[in-house]
Amino acid sequence: MKGNELIREGDQCLLNTYARYPILLVRGEGVTVWDSTGREYLDFLAGLAVCNLGHCHPKVTKALTEQANQLIHCSNFYYIGPQVELARRLCEHSFGERVFFCNSGAEAAEGAIKLARKYSKEHHGDGRYEIITMENSFHGRTMGALSATGQKRFHKGFEPLLPGFTHVPFNDLDAVAQAIGPHTCAVMVEPIQGEGGVNLPSPGYLKGLRELCDQTKTLLIYDEVQVGMGRTGKLFAYEHYEAPPHIMTLAKSLANGVPIGAVVTTEEVGGAFAPGNHGTTFGGNPLATAVGCCVVETLVEDGVLENCQEMGEYLLTGLRDLKERYTFITDVRGKGLMCGCELAFEGKEIVERCMERGVLINCTADKILRFLPPLIVTRGEIDRLLATLDAVFAER
Ligand SMILES: Cc1ncc(COP(=O)(O)O)c(C=O)c1O
User: Fold this and answer.
1) Mind listing the domains of the chain with CATH numbers?
2) What average pLDDT does the structure give for the chain?
3) How far is the CA of 49 from the centre of ligand 1 (A)?
4) Which of 213, 311, 341, 393 has CB 3.0 to 4.6 Å from 218, enough for a Cys bridge?
5) What is the DSSP letter of 252?
């Protein structure tokens, strides 16, 4: 079937949950993807912060095919070698001591919410079940993760939400201090808000949250689904801020595109789960975790984090130069290769103009152009993005 026919058929048989662009992507290599007509695009979205090592990285493809030839799936009733190995590596590189594997970011949020409630029940009694999350946060689309998400536009049509979630403004320690009460069991936060608009924490914010949590015996949960696995130039974003959490969720780029999620926690908090409390059929299966092992190793050992730091600075400098020249750019911000460019108007049209010129970018929170390229991106590729933006901005 031709690309156009598939697109038409997709409109007839898929649930209408995405406002898709009429492009059918069929191949990828590094930072480049190709559509069904053979047209080439530079991918500054990386499958939405998923393909951090780029498309079809040879080491990832090798790990995937080798494992596919060995054992794709078996039940968690048995031990799974790559699962144990990936858990060990994640713990080696983080505050973590115990890991639960699942299949997505939303599922990781669900696991974290359940773990926080269970731990608090066991240690503080039945009354502590509430979780404080941030306005403009995003934690996923399942009912628990959706209730945690602090954006009304995602809630609309799905009420009543799960009870037990309070939303306070991001970067406001006093608001959290006031919200923590006798029913609070956890505070859940993205170290840098992604979908909410690439919002960075103010100096001392995460450290302040950790201190507040320690004082009130509240658990601190970081959602590192988007910012984790090297995106900010360190393996985990919290490493920039000297304030580890008690629980961390991961997904997206953990296996560079093979579905996976993880809940990482301490021995003490993890001890609240016993056999039968939580589980999932596919979570931690040999295929996804074998690729996850390869991803962690490649990020750490192949200079990918260093490239992310260097290219992140280069991209931010280029975006700041554009800001000097175009007054409708109201802010440029980011950390590593998670960068945002805030416009004085809605950015949808800019995204479309860039796509017409062969560059894929994203716009979030209406006005924030978001750049999330693979962490292996080169100066030349960033130059191409900046030249494209310049040309598109100049047309306005
Ligand atoms: C910070 C954050 N948490 C959770 C999620 C949900 O992840 P998933 O789409 O894999 O369920 C996302 C997805 O964009 C996210 O950015």
Assistant:
1) 3-56+305-394 (3.90.1150.10), 71-301 (3.40.640.10)
2) 98
3) 10
4) 213
5) G
